[in-house]
Design brief:
With 462 residues, the chain is mainly alpha-helical. 45% of the residues lie in helices and 5% in strands. The protein has helices spanning 6-17, 19-23, 40-53, 63-70, 84-90, 99-122, 129-154, 178-195, 207-221, 224-231, 274-278, 296-299, 307-312, 354-365, 369-381, 395-406, 413-419, 423-429, 447-452, and strands at residues 75-76, 157-158, 175-176, 257-261, 293-294, 313-314, 330-331, 349-353. Helix 3 packs antiparallel against helix 6, helix 8 runs antiparallel to helix 9 (207-221) and helix 10 packs antiparallel against helix 14 (354-365). The N and C termini lie far apart (46 Å).
């Protein structure tokens, strides 16, 4: 059962109410912040503000599932009116002025700005060295996570590593190659891992979280040897016995959980949108209606007897596996607890968990008895027989299939398809979708950024 430190919640709410003073990228001389960043407690509060940035609609509350799942072959949404701005991402018809991309860019750079402020200002403050190192480690992990999202979503973006001291800060106006972003993330995560604790209370970064994200970044860079080394350092976690026990507010921060974004209902500003948005049975509280439905491609990917199916999708019955069509079922992973109002769900967003690490480790090692051993740990938990090199399909196909059903609705699918080099072919070959993505592996850089920075190069297809 999830428990919350009420003081921490109060700090988060308090920080949100005054966050413009702390984080707007405007001259420091215009802000009365000199008396704030002076004590260890001040930096704990400021760090809470960095964590808080993850809760926004521009990050895990909405944008992540739109750009990583809705934009892939595993979920879809047909809707009109105001919802058309989201549906365009599903159809690869989004524009440079759609709000999802704009909000994602703004929210994640706001979080990065908060992290930079913490790291820049803490150096001159006297406090316990271990506490200072841990705060910097958490800030670096969070900045790395935000940059990973930006890189996998937009590609080439500005690399801002210091607190902005003027409205014309040059760093924020220079677009750098995505490879440079990943190199910086890897360096930051390596440093963060050394100073983070092995364990922490729910929702805080740990050594395991830093190593798991580092492994994912190395895989994205194509450095499988470094990825394997990082992923093998992820220790102290294990698969929960029953896949269904991963989900629901009562199961958060379980032994498989490595990093979660912590939402809490009842406080007005800390709940999530996706609990009721994904689950049609709870959709009455969502003003724009249910969304993000499983595709036939996803439903038909589950093998008979796979316990992950009934723990992930409802509304069609297990007999539909193998021949379902688009329009059947809905996601139940994020709970069956109906929030009293829109955007106030209690369920966390799981960013990293141990099953993902096992599958990434198999990917990093390549086809071997060891890698099949990692894959089969995940399959055995799902009630399925083991696979091996004699099982039909290439190793990459088998691994991508396992990630598809194990991590469905968790915001991994589009980065996976890109990393495996099959995004365009998968979308085109899906018989129920057959979408030509027109080279749009990354979404459009928002038009407001292009207008402000004439040297920016827009992504292909826009």
């Amino acid at each position: 059962m999830k428990t919350k430190n009420i003081l921490s919640i109060f700090i988060l709410i308090s920080f949100m109410s005054c966050s413009k003073e702390f984080t707007d990228l405007s001259p420091i001389s215009e802000r009365n912040t000199g008396s704030f960043y002076t004590t260890a407690n001040d930096f704990e509060v400021a760090l809470a503000g960095v964590y808080n940035s993850l809760l926004s609609q521009g990050v895990y509350n909405e944008a992540i599932w739109i750009v990583n799942d809705l934009r892939s072959d595993i979920t879809f949404w047909d809707a009109g009116g105001l919802a058309a701005a989201i549906v365009r991402y599903d159809d690869f018809e989004e524009t440079t002025i759609d709000y999802v991309g704009r909000d994602s860019w703004i929210a994640q750079y706001k979080g990065i700005g908060r992290a930079n402020t913490v790291m820049d200002r803490i150096e001159e403050v006297e406090m316990d060295p271990s506490q200072k190192a841990r705060i910097v480690g958490e800030a670096k992990f969070l900045r790395s996570l935000l940059y990973y999202n930006l890189a996998t979503t937009f590609g080439n973006v500005p690399l801002v590593l210091n607190e902005a001291t003027s409205a014309d800060d040059d760093e924020s106006n220079v677009q750098v190659p995505v490879a440079q972003i990943y190199t910086q993330i890897a360096a930051d995560l390596t440093e963060a891992e050394s100073s983070l604790p092995s364990t922490a209370k729910g929702g805080r970064a740990t050594k395991g979280a830093a190593a798991a994200l580092l492994g994912k970044v190395y895989l994205t860079q194509g450095d499988k040897s470094s990825a394997a080394s990082a992923l093998k350092r992820v220790s102290g976690y294990s698969l929960v016995d029953n896949y269904a026990d991963l989900w629901g507010a009562e199961n958060e921060f379980n032994k498989e959980s490595i990093f979660e974004v912590s939402y809490e209902s009842g406080y007005g500003v800390l709940g999530n949108l996706f609990t009721s948005a994904f689950n049609t049975e709870l959709g009455a509280t969502v003003t724009s209606g249910p969304r993000n439905f499983p595709t036939a491609s996803l439903i038909n990917s589950y093998e008979a007897g796979d316990t992950r199916f009934e723990a992930s999708i409802d509304g069609i019955g297990s007999e539909a596996v193998g021949f379902a069509a688009d329009g059947a079922g809905w996601c139940i992973k994020y709970g069956t607890t109906n929030p009293s109002t829109d955007n106030d769900g209690p369920n966390n967003w799981v960013v990293l968990r141990y099953a993902d690490v096992l599958l990434m480790l198999a990917e990093a090692i390549g086809e071997s008895a060891e890698s099949y051993g990692y894959i089969n740990q995940v399959r055995t938990r799902a009630g399925l027989d083991p696979i091996s090199s004699s099982t039909a399909g290439t190793f990459a196909e088998k691994l991508l299939q396992e990630r598809k059903v194990e991590l469905a609705f968790e915001g991994h699918r589009w980065p996976d398809l890109k990393r495996f080099g099959v995004a365009a072919s998968v979308m085109l070959s899906d018989p129920q979708r057959s979408i030509d993505i027109r080279g749009r592996l990354n979404i459009a850089i928002p038009q407001r950024e292009m207008d402000i920075n004439p040297d920016f190069v827009q992504n292909p297809g826009y």
